[in-house]
Amino acid sequence: MPRFVLDENQRRTVLEVDKDVIVVGRGAQCDVAVLDLRASRAHCRVERHGAQYVLHDLGSQNGTTLNGHLVDRSALKPGDEIGVGSARIFFEQAPPPAALSDSRDTMILDVEKEMSRAKDKEDRLLRLQRIAKALNSELHLDRLLAIIVDHVIELAGAERAFLVLGRAGEEPAVRVARNFEREEVAEPEEAFSRNIVEQVLRSGQPILAANAVEDPRFQEFLSINAIRARSVLAIPLIVRGTAIGAVYVDNRLQKGAFTAVELQTLSSLADFAGIAIENARLYEENERRARELEVLNGQLVHRVDLQAQELSDVRDRLRRAGEPAGSYPHIVGRAPAMRELLKLLDKVVSTEEPVLIEGESGTGKELIAKAVHSKGPRAKQPFLSENCAALTETLLESELFGHVRGAFTGADRDKKGLFELADRGTLFLDEVGDMSPEMQKKLLRVLQEGEIRPVGGKTVRKVDVRILSASNKDLKKLVDGGEFREDLYYRLKVLTVRTPPLRQRKEDIPLLVEHFLRVHTPAGRRPKTLGEGVLDRLVAHDWPGNVRELENEVKRMIALGDEVIGVETLSESVRRGAGPAVAGDDESVHNLVDLVERVERREIEKALHRAQGNKTRASDLLGISRFTLQRKLEKYGMEDRAAPDDE
Length: 647
Prior knowledge:
The chain is of the alpha+beta class.
């Protein structure tokens, strides 16, 4: 069992502790407890490793010495002396306490005292070095001031410390006031001698008092008598020859607690503490100004953007008088049909009624839905969309209404549906005409009741969602044919918007081509240009797939074309021309073989596009067998237009 001999305040205590980890410090729970205020609460520890004992410093403020030298970690041997503040702890064995009487012993004792003073001085220098490093690494002013005060208390062995900032002639303000337990001092402005601090600020010189209450220098200082201070030490904080504040420490019970040693040590600390405080002030001031500058720059950029937008709006209004009042930057088009559509949107966006968007596939119905949402009263709320034709009935129900855990195979957790996620926002249902009768019934209930029930759930949840729907089918014909519920149809068709096909707005094709060339050109590259005759072919084509087909054609041109895109880059159907003449056209007679091929190509492309590449559905639309459609695809080299894994 290890033995420790604690030598403190002229008393020796022998402690035997049978533990693998023995903690030394000022804390009440320590195995070896010391009284010196310069000792940290948990100062160091001794660890047992088999027959070996190792000393570890625990990051103490004033450090741990072993045989007079500061150490962080070191092995112990019998007779070693551990220094914790003024306390000395001998490991296993201690020298006899009796004073030596002969002259030789006296000489040795004097040498040891001199060496001890030298070691103490070395320790103070090492501590000051560590403190300077800690202060220089902290740029946050409040944290820096707290660190300074804690180190001042440790170095001086003070009961309390006050850090006061203010120049001569100003009202000094207490920034930190703490005691040796690192507890905040109550009512700090009344707990120290303001008169002494003001004198230090005026003179720039420190003040040391062994017993301030009886010191004739302070007889007229009412604050001294009020707080009954005994030992007092005040040191100015000097920056560029001017006092910016002071450090004030005291001990209200003990006289002569501070000596010239503490005065010299704290003066050294104050020298670089003042510089650290000024640096932290400058850093925080620069940070504050940088934030202000950032805010001002942001306001300036915002103002410039607003003015630029206002100028752009004015130019647009002057250039396009009579056009829609609203701004729809993502919708490209100036044709009369598009202007009428946008004028209608100006009225639709301000309401919260359901909107049915009709039009052929590829005409930009979802783009219109997004515009209705973004310009409407729910613009800041969620916008979600779902293609009703892309999912089976079960998956669509789960996607729209959500499900609870265990509702079906694979439902390993609760999932919110789009209606719940879009609460207070907008939900866009594309290809709503492809919903099954059962899903139509469930959707109608949601629109009527404003509540949903997740798949497998028993409780309903209230939702507030604006419904925008779209279909490339004629829903009225589906209603007449009994394929779509009439009551749901009128719920969805409170307001109706119809997107015009591209063949009815061919004057927009140059604008759309320019837009797609710019959008789909890789970043960092210049958009390609169109060669002679290319734009004419693009305008002449009927575009059965509408804007989506035109966009895909432009992507193809960018990928395959040179810097100047030639006619040869266009797909075969676009190169051939606008399509067949219809009955009644006053044109010359066409070659029937070519005419039939052009008609078949165009109709097959339209059918595949509407069927999303599904050959079975496309053949039904064309009124031919799937086998016949496959042969024509092979004949015209159009296999890539169909889905590879068709059911």
